[in-house]
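Q: My labmate handed me this sequence with no annotations at all. I'd like to see what the chain might look like in three dimensions before we decide whether it's worth expressing. Could you predict it?
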Amino acid sequence: MNNFVKRTLSGIGFAAIMIAALLTNQYVFGVVMLLSLILMMREFLRMTCGKEYRYSQVLSILAGITLFALTYMHLAFGMSGRIVVLAVVPVFILMVNSLYVKDKSRFDKFANLYTAIVYVAVPWSFLNFAVFCNGHAFNGVLLLCFFAIVWASDVGAYIFGITLGQKYGKKLFPSISPKKSWIGFWGGLFTSVGVAAALYYAGVFDLPLVHCLVLSVLIDVAGVYGDLIESQWKRHYAIKDSGDLIPGHGGLLDRFDSALTAIPVGVIYLMVVNVL
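A: Here is what I predict for the chain of 276 residues:
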């Protein structure tokens, strides 16, 4: 019960910060999301590289910061899209730096410095496309709906999985996450679709109903894969959580693992159907 209370309170606090970042203004959004990016990349690099290549880890995080910041400035302030290509400069510096690393006994770990950029920074930069979609005017409601679907999926999967999934049916991906079940998956999908429909009828999800429902399914499925992807990383490195920033929940990467795949899928879908 104490752990449940701790998870509940910290979860509410986490959600409150995210909602404030999305509904206040573009500057609060930028600061909160950039800080989140830094912490997630740090957690991933600490998990995969440990204390090795610390200077190179800083360069990797700097590359992620640059990509997010340049995308933000392009969409928020209308700066030329050409500036986004400058994000490759820190990556190039990181590549050159690899030549000067003296201890190459575990040089295979160096690949994780690039993975951190692709796995965390690139998808996280997609958040900017969701909040600056109408003439560079900031509006975080669409992204909030995306997160609401992701959170609904997590909650639904947890409730259905813990009550029914552990007793009945098959496991979803036992080799990577033994506790996840197909019942939990379908429960999460049901909850996601329900929340998307509720947001539409409440006038919050300002898209045609068909898009809201399709997005709920795509975001749910992509989010499940995102969760499994991070679980695979943690299983490989034999750790339970990516960090301990959020009591009862683990690290920030543990909270955003689903969003790292779900949000880009949602943004890409809306681009394909010419809504963004």
